[in-house]
Design goal:
2 domains, Alpha-Beta Plaits, four-stranded antiparallel β-sheet, globular, alpha+beta, 8 strands
Length: 179
């Protein structure tokens, strides 16, 4: 049975949108997903389910969170193969020396080429930002808070939802999907 990673955006970042991971596991299990595991408190879950389209799974999870918990939360889904491809394609592997300062910003879809040409995120920090297949890689050598906000940029300029994970989390989620 295929395995997926669900990446929820913006939960447990302060008092708003508090979601216990046991509630997330129960919600995903209630949707019929198996082998549900969560990682950290920031909305990372892996699960198995019969083959489904990632966009459909994301919409199902978003609707269930709204219907069950009364919160509007965006969700991005990646398969194990897609997560492995993000890791394998990392253009910053030789530069980024601290996994807590390297981000993978997972996008809900591929940015429109015209929007990307008009607002290229690479211009914000040349050599530190690269655009991949439904992902933006961002090296933040001075810390994430000092770097351009790519989540907001993707929303406003590229018209896609983004949710970021540091590299340590990305590799851990991939290992959870493989295991």
């Amino acid at each position: 049975m295929p395995r997926y990673a669900a990446l929820l955006r913006g939960i447990n970042l302060g008092p708003n949108k508090a979601l216990a991971m046991e509630d997330l596991r129960a919600l995903l299990s209630g949707l019929g997903h198996a082998d549900v595991r969560t990682y950290l408190r920031s909305g990372n879950a892996v699960f198995s389910c019969p083959a489904g389209q990632p966009d459909d799974l994301a919409a199902e999870i978003e609707d269930a969170i709204t219907g069950t918990l009364g919160m509007t939360v965006r969700c991005v889904i990646r398969t194990g193969a897609e997560l492995r491809a993000v890791i394998d394609a990392n253009p910053l592997r030789d530069v980024a020396t601290d996994g807590s300062k390297l981000l993978a910003l997972f996008l809900s879809g591929a940015p429109d080429a015209g929007l990307l040409a008009a607002s290229d995120p690479r211009d914000l920090a040349p050599g530190h930002i690269y655009v991949g297949d439904r992902v933006i890689y961002q090296w933040c050598p001075d810390g994430i808070m000092a770097a351009p906000n790519m989540v907001e940029f993707a929303d406003k300029k590229l018209k896609v939802t983004a949710t970021g994970r540091n590299w340590n989390t990305v590799t851990k989620l991939c290992a959870m999907l493989d295991g």
